[in-house]
Automatic annotation (TrEMBL):
InterPro entries: FAR (IPR026055), FAR_C (IPR033640), FAR_NAD-bd (IPR013120), NAD(P)-bd_dom_sf (IPR036291). Residues 47-348 form the Thioester reductase (TE) domain. This is Fatty acyl-CoA reductase. Belongs to the fatty acyl-CoA reductase family. The keyword Kinase does not apply. Its EC number is 1.2.1.84. Catalyzes the reduction of fatty acyl-CoA to fatty alcohols. PANTHER family: FATTY ACYL-COA REDUCTASE 3, MALE STERILITY PROTEIN 2-RELATED. GO terms for molecular function: alcohol-forming long-chain fatty acyl-CoA reductase activity; alcohol-forming very long-chain fatty acyl-CoA reductase activity. Residues 422-520 form the Fatty acyl-CoA reductase C-terminal domain. Keywords: Lipid biosynthesis, Lipid metabolism, NADP, Oxidoreductase, Signal. Pfam families: NAD_binding_4, Sterile. The keyword Signal applies.
Length: 520
């Protein structure tokens, strides 16, 4: 109900805020939608995390709408230039995502690609982005106009040392490298809206202060966290810990530190720290931080439904398809704040064009929960309808009957169910194993491991199944207003969630896309 009220208030507020928001300046010539293509013309762009899902869509979009872009430098984790080139060819250009660009250029596609894409071997966890060749570094510093940082590790329970290296120090290294670029117009950093933690109500687009924590009066000392990780690794080494034990200890440390300071998992916690460093150290460098919510498959172009990897909600779809999920937990009326990947990319282009050469920090939520909210129940209903009309077939060739699974709205009841359905039978098997002198040890260990892993996932995802916040997107609404009503341009760079028919999107685009591209 509070989200409905907020939508009504936004209509009144947007016109006032365009004029009164401090430090918010839009260049009308840049933000006419027809000028976004012109903004990209002749630009040299450095993209980190270029083999990732979102970065690929960004690269394809730029190449498709503005063939006169000067150069796209793609930072790739690789040992050398040859290995970087191979990764770009196989993991980026070779994807179906580039079908439209290939068809457009025909036999000249490969020459077009070689003239526009420049793979760079490196790694953001290292200074100078791990680029060993001083000539290449100098070339980038002299030529790059825009830096787009999409690199991140997104696992909720990533090793703490790894997450700190990529999401925190990586952001710092990208900023330091950007400061060396003599022609730099803007640094665009892609974060996540869930750096806000488990807030309720309207969540504003505001920056983090250095050391700001979400719980109590704690001060988050980033340098201290780095030292803590180093000390923990030394302790594990002194005890000759195995690689598995070290990984487990580092994952537990990340989750524990995140929750100590008020975040639910290591991913959002370290992304928040990355934002803090960027805001604190940027000086007068133009900085845009874009915070998408749950990113889903492509809505419109170039390939509707295209997706790569397992996004948050897609784990549920795939688990349902494979029969590995027997129930759900969460409030079906909870707003599932999702946004298609192509809209995120369009917002990336619009925001970096809007703030080119503006020496300030700008924060944007790319969200749908206020302007066009959709509930988890809608996804559930669309999934049931899709699989009812398109039945799954098992390995034995038999049709798998589609049935509605129980949904637990109360976590206490859910945990009781899991105990009765799985934990108690496990304990019975454990007893039988002891009485039979270990005859069922392997089976018990396997099932017990799966149960613990399932409950670990439940622990990670519970905050989002009952999330009660709405992400304000007033800053992006200003951009949409500034872009005007050029229908052709708005279609090419559309990032308005109101244009999404969620039921049609789930049924006709997203679920088929997950089955085709992600459910292997």
């Amino acid at each position: 109900m509070h989200c409905t009220l907020l939508r009504c208030l936004k209509t009144l507020c947007v016109c006032v805020c365009v004029l009164t928001h401090p430090g918010f300046v839009l260049s009308s010539c840049d933000m006419e939608s027809s000028r976004l293509m012109e903004f990209l013309k002749g630009k040299s762009i450095l993209v980190t995390g270029s083999t990732g899902f979102l970065a690929k869509i960004f690269v394809e979009k730029v190449m498709r709408v503005q063939p006169d872009v000067k150069r796209l430098f793609l930072l790739v984790r690789a040992a050398d230039a040859s290995s970087a080139e191979q990764r770009v060819q196989s993991e980026i250009i070779g994807k179906e995502l580039f079908k439209v660009v290939k068809d457009k250029h025909g036999d000249g596609f490969h020459s077009f690609v070689s003239s526009k894409l420049f793979p760079v071997a490196g790694d953001i966890v290292q200074q100078n982005l791990g680029i060993p060749d001083s000539n290449i570094r100098e070339k980038l510093w002299q030529e790059v106009d825009i830096v787009v940082n999409v690199a991140a590790t997104t696992s909720f329970d990533e090793r703490y040392d790894v997450a700190l290296g990529v999401n925190v120090l990586g952001a710092k290294h990208v900023l330091e490298f950007a400061k060396q670029c003599v022609k730099l117009q803007v640094l665009l950093h892609v974060s996540t809206a869930y750096v806000a933690g488990e807030q309720r109500g309207l969540i504003l687009e505001k920056r983090f202060r250095m050391g700001e924590a979400l719980k109590g009066d704690r001060y988050l000392d980033i340098e201290g966290e780095l030292m803590l990780v180093d000390e923990r690794r030394r302790q594990l080494g002194a005890h000759n810990a195995t690689k598995e034990a070290e990984a487990r200890a580092m994952k537990e440390l990340g989750i524990n530190r995140a929750r100590l300071f008020g975040w639910s998992n290591t991913y959002v916690y370290t992304k928040a720290m990355g934002e803090m460093l960027l805001g604190e150290l940027r000086g007068n460098l133009p900085l845009v931080i874009l915070r998408p919510t749950i990113i889903t498959s492509i809505h419109r172009d170039p390939v509707p439904g295209w997706i790569e990897g397992t996004r948050t909600i897609d784990s549920l779809i795939m688990g349902y398809v494979k029969g590995k999920i027997t129930c759900f937990f969460g409030d079906p009326e909870t707003v599932a704040d999702m946004i298609p990947a192509d809209m995120v990319v369009n917002a990336m282009i619009a925001t970096m064009a809007a703030h080119s050469r503006q020496p300030s920090e700008f924060i944007y939520h790319m969200s749908s929960s206020v302007r066009n909210p959709v509930q988890y129940s809608t996804l559930q209903q669309c999934g049931f309808r899709y699989f009812h009309e398109n039945p799954r077939v098992g390995k034995d060739g038999r049709v798998i009957k589609t049935k509605k699974l129980p949904v637990f709205r109360n976590m206490f009841v859910f945990r009781v169910y899991m105990t009765l359905r799985y934990k108690l039978p496990l304990e019975g098997l454990h007893l039988v194993n002891l009485l039979s002198c270990g005859r069922f040890a392997r089976r018990y260990d396997e099932l017990n491991r799966k149960y613990k892993f399932a409950m670990h996932l439940v622990d990670l995802y519970e905050p989002y199944a009952f999330f009660k916040g709405c992400f304000d997107d007033l800053n992006l609404e200003r951009l949409r207003t500034a872009m005007g009503k050029d229908d052709a341009g708005a279609g090419m760079f559309d990032f308005d969630p109101k244009h999404i028919d969620w039921k049609d999107y789930f049924y006709s685009i997203h679920i088929p896309g997950v089955l085709k591209y992600a459910c292997k």
